[in-house]
Amino acid sequence: MICQQDKILRPFWISNHKSAENVFADYDANKLYWVDSALKYLGVSNLDGSGRKHFLEGLLYKPFGVVVYEDQIFWTQWTSTEAVKKTSKTSPTTAETVVTKADTSQDTAPFAIVVSRSTQTLQCEIC
């Protein structure tokens, strides 16, 4: 069974991406976020696929997981040193490294990301 949302987004996804690795739906803001590893950008649109924009074009290297937390967008990056990067949700023009591969016990590139607030510190878990 295909839901109504899927019927709306299917043509949008099929025709406009080369390698969208991960998608995050921000239902509170009515936005959809994704990273495209082949075209090296962070994308955002309305949930219905309208208002599509690309950010940080050519500046992402092998992005994979993506998640939005409060006013920040986080993504995993498959490089030899960087593991998690972030940018502002309202003005995504620069990227900041949050977690490096050296900060983790992982030998492989991170696939997914979970961001949560525990007490007063922000925790990024990659897997």
Q: Could you tell me the radius of gyration in angstroms? A: 15 Å
Order of helices and strands: HEEEEEEEEEE
Which CATH class applies here? Mainly Beta
Please give the count of helices: 1
Oligomerization state of this entry? Answer: single chain
Q: Any idea of the CATH topology?
A: Neuraminidase
Q: What does this molecule look like?
A:
This protein is mainly beta and 127 residues long. The chain has one domain: TolB, C-terminal domain (Neuraminidase), CATH 2.120.10.30. The chain contains 1 helix and 10 strands. A hairpin with a 4-residue loop joins strand 6 and strand 7 (82-88).
Secondary-structure blueprint of this entry?
Elements lengths: L3 H13 L3 E7 L4 E6 L4 E6 L6 E3 L7 E7 L2 E6 L4 E7 L7 E5 L12 E6 L2 E6 L1
Antiparallel strand pairs: 1-2, 2-3, 3-4, 5-6, 6-7, 7-8, 9-10
List keywords for this structure.
single chain, about 130 residues, mainly beta, 4-stranded antiparallel sheet, 1 helix, about 10% helix, disordered N terminus
What's the short story on this structure?
10% of the residues lie in helices and 46% in strands.
